[in-house]
């Protein structure tokens, strides 16, 4: 629904983090529904039921709000501290990515960011530097670097190729099976048949 068609909402008197949370939810919903190019301060304020001036006091543009909101809600992989379950941590990292992809609002908003970034690479770069890197980077990269730091994986094996394998195969699966996400069994196969051999580990290790 466009800003012109959506009924005007009465501003709600909220302050502090409660207001910021409402604005974050609103910008993610707006991006999921209208795409990044369809974001506007008016639309975000209307959905958050607040005054547009509340937005301009903290952010300079709708994209500034979106980047902050995604950072706030983007999940972060936390590998086993003891680094004693590489296979399990890798499977869980892919499950976390799958859950993000299938999340109705945030997942769609991130897909909208990716679509916009195809012709605006500076937006994707901003997401990398302001969201993905602060949140630990790619999910499988977080796990592999954790194990490499503790001497369980050869650091020379942690490359842009090996850290991209899991997520890339999941995206390929979704492209080949529209409307579906890979099962946990399929994610385990990605780990056992591709990622572990690529970093020099046998699945049964």
Task: Give a short summary of the structure.
The chain is mainly alpha-helical and 205 residues long. The protein is built from ten helices and no strands.
Properties at a glance:
mainly alpha, 205 residues
Would you write up a description of this structure?
- Helix 1 crosses helix 2, helix 1 crosses helix 6 (106-117) and helix 9 runs antiparallel to helix 10.
- The chain has helices spanning 16-34, 41-48, 52-56, 62-73, 86-102, 106-117, 121-132, 139-149, 165-176, 184-198.
- By secondary structure, the chain is mainly α.
- It is elongated and about 55 Å long.
- It contains ten helices and no strands.
Number of helices: 10
Question: If you average the pLDDT, what whole number results?
Answer: 88
Determine the structural class based on helices, strands and strand pairing: mainly alpha
Gross morphology: elongated
Show unreliable segments: 1-5
Q: Radius of gyration, Cα only, in angstroms?
A: 20 Å
Helix percent band: 55-70%
Percentage of β-strand residues: under 5%
The end-to-end span amounts to 53 Å
What's the oligomerization state?
Answer: single chain
- Spell out the helices and strands N to C: HHHHHHHHHH
Report the major sheet. none
What is the β-strand count? 0
SSE topology sketch:
Elements: H1 16-34, H2 41-48, H3 52-56, H4 62-73, H5 86-102, H6 106-117, H7 121-132, H8 139-149, H9 165-176, H10 184-198
Helix pairs in contact: 1-2, 1-4, 1-6, 4-7, 5-8, 5-10, 6-7, 9-10
């Amino acid at each position: 629904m466009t800003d012109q068609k959506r009924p005007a909402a009465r501003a709600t008197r909220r302050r502090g983090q409660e207001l910021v949370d409402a604005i974050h939810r609103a910008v993610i919903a707006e991006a999921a529904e209208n795409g990044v190019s369809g974001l506007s301060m008016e639309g975000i304020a209307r959905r958050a039921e607040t005054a547009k001036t509340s937005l301009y006091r903290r952010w300079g543009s709708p994209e500034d709000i979106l980047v902050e909101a995604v950072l706030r809600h983007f999940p972060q992989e936390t590998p086993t501290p003891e680094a004693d379950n590489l296979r399990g941590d890798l499977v869980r990292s892919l499950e976390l990515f799958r859950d993000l992809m299938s999340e109705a609002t945030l997942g769609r908003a991130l897909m909208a960011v990716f679509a916009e970034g195809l012709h605006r690479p500076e937006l994707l770069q901003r997401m990398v530097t302001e969201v993905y890197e602060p949140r630990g980077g790619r999910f499988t990269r977080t796990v592999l670097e954790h194990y490499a730091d503790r001497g369980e994986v050869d650091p020379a094996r942690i490359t842009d190729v090996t850290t991209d394998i899991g997520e890339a195969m999941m995206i390929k699966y979704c492209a080949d099976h529209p409307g579906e996400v890979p099962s946990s069994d399929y994610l385990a196969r990605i780990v056992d048949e591709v990622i572990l051999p690529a970093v020099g580990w046998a699945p049964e290790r």
